Amino acid sequence: MSKRDIDAEQAQRLMLNQVRHRILQYIHRRGSVTVREIGAELSDIPQATMYRQIKLLYENGLIRVCGNRQVRGTLEHTYRLSDELTADDGRALGDMSTQFALLSIAQDFSDYYRGDDADPDRDMMSVVSRPMLLNDEEFREYLKSIRELTDRYIHNEPDADRRVRKVTFISSPA
């Protein structure tokens, strides 16, 4: 398989396929994985389909080989997401990393609601969208306030009363 530069439009189309999206999500959660690990986690996907989709993701630059090891006479690749998908500088392939982040959030909600123990009230789940009229300076000030508030809690140490809560801030033009 040969890697080529990522075409943003093609990559966005590839990410919208449910099987490829699930593969990308699994790699995203784990950091780096082998095809065997993906197959074990996504066991409902036929093996031939899995290999074909991973090949497409690799050939289009959405995943990269980050390691190899010999396993019973064959070379096993370890894959990770491409840097362009995980970049948060806002410049990588236009808005591709942003779109992947949005797909990841949708996947988090889907995973949550598929669980047997989903209870949005108990878990204090919240989605809030409020249009605000702000000039650039006011918006910078608003973002600074959110950063300062987040910084107060971001380094909390684990204890019996704390659990991970994923908080996502998204701003978009209205």
Descriptive terms for the model:
174 residues; mainly alpha; Arc Repressor Mutant, subunit A; 3 strands; 47% helix
Give an account of the 3D structure:
- The chain starts with 7 loop residues before the first helix and ends in a 21-residue tail after the last helix.
- 14% of the residues are buried.
- It has helices spanning 8-15, 18-30, 35-41, 47-59, 83-86, 96-114, 136-153; strands at 33-34, 63-71, 74-81.
- The protein has a domain at 8-114: Arc Repressor Mutant, subunit A (Orthogonal Bundle).
- It is mainly α and 174 residues long.
- The longest helix has 19 residues, at 96-114.
- The protein contains 7 helices and 3 strands, in the order H-H-E-H-H-E-E-H-H-H.
- It is globular.
- The chain has a 3-stranded antiparallel beta sheet.
What CATH architecture of the domain at 8-114 would you give? Orthogonal Bundle
SSE run = HHEHHEEHHH
Number of DSSP strand runs: 3
The secondary structure category is mainly alpha
Q: According to CATH, what is the class of the domain at 8-114? A: Mainly Alpha
Strand residues, percent: 5-15%
Tally of helical runs: 7
- Give the CATH topology of the domain at 8-114: Arc Repressor Mutant, subunit A
For the sheet with most strands, the description reads: 3 strands, antiparallel
- Rounded Rg: 19 Å
The helix content is 40-55%
Distance between the termini: 42 Å
Uncertain spans, ≥5 residues at pLDDT below 50? 89-94
